[in-house]
Write a structure and sequence with these properties.
Elements: H1 7-38, H2 41-53, H3 56-64, E1 66-67, H4 70-89, H5 92-95, H6 99-124, H7 134-163, E2 171-173, E3 176-178, E4 190-192, E5 197-201, E6 207-211, E7 214-216, H8 219-245, E8 259-260
Antiparallel strand pairs: 1-8, 2-7, 3-4, 5-6
Helix pairs in contact: 1-2, 1-4, 2-4, 4-6, 6-7, 6-8, 7-8
Length: about 270
């Protein structure tokens, strides 16, 4: 039986959700106007995309007849705003060193919650005759989250490769280890450390100097993103496992788990 929540609390949660949605939507529109006046049409397109993404929770809820907890819905709105408006347009990725890390960790957590809910819904429905163990459900949630993380890295790589973006943020390193530098073509890496400058000569006689080291092309960023996605997915998978074992003790997990609307009435 689902524990009844006082009607007053429900109204308060809905009111908070609406306020957050309207405030963020207003800020996005304000940002769109600002970028339009500056002629930054790429940023205008990102603002427009953000407004579309804001509708996804409502569309998903009506299309698939799922109930999104207020906490989860607010986090999704804030995540979209933090990634597109603050991260891309306001350059929080460059200003705050760990902004991207925070978002990828949260993405791992939320993706695991979605994967968990999909399996938990099947596990609780009468049409599905195989009951999966809590450990298996947690494992599927973890794998689902990691798959989403990998697919996103594929998208970042493709955007950088074919559209000359820099979604896989490069970084300066002072040490490289590569077999490509082995003049004898052996499988022994040549290590160069204490790099303080790199000079690049282009075909058009343009010379580019990178001060402080060597430019790593996205590898470190990609692996860092997958590692923090792993951490976020692992944390939720453990919490999801404990929730299935004792739904009353770990009831707070329901704030992050979508569920079928009919389950809300059971």
């Amino acid at each position: 039986m689902k524990k009844e929540v006082p009607q007053k609390e429900n109204k308060k949660q809905v009111r908070i959700n609406i306020i957050v949605y309207l405030v963020l939507r207003f800020l996005v529109i304000l940002c769109m106007v600002e970028q339009s006046l500056k002629g930054n049409w790429h940023s205008v397109a990102l603002c427009f995309l953000t407004l579309i993404l804001f509708t996804l929770p409502t569309v998903a809820s009506r299309t698939f007849k799922v109930k999104l907890p207020t906490t989860l819905e607010i986090i999704v709105y804030l995540f979209i705003f933090a990634a597109e408006i603050l991260g891309e347009i306001q350059n929080f990725y460059g200003i705050f060193k760990h902004w991207d890390t925070m978002l990828h960790t949260l993405n791992g957590f939320l993706s695991a919650a979605v994967g968990f809910s999909l399996i938990d819904i099947l596990n609780r429905t009468d049409k599905f005759h195989i009951k999966m163990t809590p450990a298996f459900v947690a494992l599927v949630a973890f794998c689902f989250s990691m798959t989403i993380g990998v697919l996103w890295e594929f998208f970042e790589y493709s955007a950088d490769r074919y559209f000359n973006t820099d979604m896989q943020k490069d970084r300066i390193v002072q040490k490289i280890s590569s077999v490509e530098l082995n003049k004898e073509n052996k499988n022994d890496p040549v290590i160069i450390d204490n790099i303080n400058k790199t000079v690049i000569y282009s075909d058009n006689n343009k010379v580019t100097t990178i001060e402080g080291g060597y430019l790593d092309i996205g590898i470190i960023d990609t692996m860092k993103d997958l590692i923090v996605n792993f951490i976020g997915a692992l944390v939720f998978s453990i919490l999801g496992f404990l929730y299935i074992k004792d739904r009353d003790e770990y009831k707070f997990i329901e704030r992050f788990i979508p569920s079928l609307k009919k389950f809300q009435e059971e």
